[in-house]
Design brief:
Elements: E1 21-30, E2 35-41, E3 53-59, E4 64-70, E5 79-85, H1 93-96, E6 104-107, E7 125-131, H2 136-141, H3 145-150, E8 153-160, H4 167-178, H5 182-186, E9 190-196, H6 207-213, E10 230-236, H7 238-249, E11 264-268
Parallel strand pairs: 7-8, 7-10, 8-9, 10-11
Antiparallel strand pairs: 1-2, 1-6, 2-5, 3-4, 3-6
Helix pairs in contact: 6-7
The structure holds adenosine-2'-5'-diphosphate.
């Protein structure tokens, strides 16, 4: 007797096209007890514009725990870099700070953001004002040759509470200057200005104070902010972005977006 085996038909698995992919940790580096950076593998087909952010995370007990992170590497790189604070009781960063090479980290699929060249009108000077980990999107942009094709001067500022917190930015700028292709491109265009608010340092004060007093403009060619020639990107805490935006607006610059490019754009850095 021949028995016919009937295979039950399984319901088709639902595939979420936006589900994060699982990427490999390629490197980690710790700067202070509060700051670290890491690199992830970049999936084939993952496209983004320099300056954009993406959801990053780890698997939680039931579902993924994801937060928005600016990508700190340029669009041409074959890995993805990130720069993060460590919050002792932060749901994600308390765990993320312990990742090791070879571990897996979840990476979203849809990079977005306003700190992109597309959201700005053409200009001559590009100012990037950052505090703390707000430097991350600018780490991406200062490694992008398009930035130097579009602007004569690229001025990156970073303000931190302590001198040690500036190390990531200083190393980054040095690596750009030493880079075999970028080095020549950035030579007399990239200006890096660092200031500190809670320790002794050659340049002291918040970016808002340096703008208001005019101190900042002693360190760049071309004088105060001018809507005709200058474009600005701002990234830091909620308070910093709002106060710096107000200061930039006092020079007559108008806020832009992807759909309506103008003179300046802002984005809040990830916290928590
Ligand atoms: P300060 O030390 O005077 O608070 P935070 O870690 O709080 O995000 O701060 C990072 C840097 O940003 C610090 O140097 C801090 O200066 C500065 N900062 C904080 N709030 C503002 C603000 N509203 N406008 C400009 N800079 C700010």
């Amino acid at each position: 007797m021949i028995m016919t085996e009937i295979t039950p038909i399984k319901p088709a698995k639902k595939i979420n096209p936006n589900a994060p992919t699982s990427e490999t940790v390629l490197a980690t580096k710790h700067y202070t007890d509060k700051l670290f950076s890491f690199s992830l593998s970049r999936p084939a087909g993952f496209r983004f514009r320099s300056g954009e952010f993406i959801m990053i995370g780890l698997m939680g007990e039931k579902k993924p725990l994801l937060r928005a992170y600016s990508i700190a590497s340029p669009a041409w790189d074959d890995k993805l870099d990130f720069y993060s604070i460590k919050v002792p009781d932060g749901p994600l960063t308390s765990r993320l700070q312990n990742i090791q090479v070879g571990d897996k980290v979840l990476l979203g699929k849809k990079p977005v953001g306003t700190l992109v060249l597309d959201a700005l009108l053409p200009g001559k000077r590009l100012f990037m004002f950052s505090t703390g980990t707000g430097i991350a999107p600018f780490a991406s942009l200062i490694q992008d040759p398009d930035v130097y094709e579009n602007f004569d001067q690229v001025i990156l500022t970073q303000t931190c509470r302590d001198v040690a917190e500036l190390e990531y930015g200083k190393k980054l700028v040095q690596s750009v200057r030493d880079h075999e292709f970028l080095g020549e491109l950035v030579e007399d265009k990239l200006v890096h200005i660092t200031s500190v608010t809670r320790e002794d340092y050659p340049l002291k004060g918040r970016i808002t104070t340096l703008l208001e007093s005019g101190e900042l403009f002693k360190h760049v060619k071309g004088g105060p902010l001018n809507r005709e020639t200058d474009r600005v990107m701002i990234c830091g805490s909620m308070d910093m972005t709002q106060d710096t935006k107000a200061m930039v607006e006092s020079f007559g610059l108008k806020e832009g977006s992807n759909s309506a490019p103008a003179d300046f754009v802002i984005e809040k850095a990830f916290v928590g």
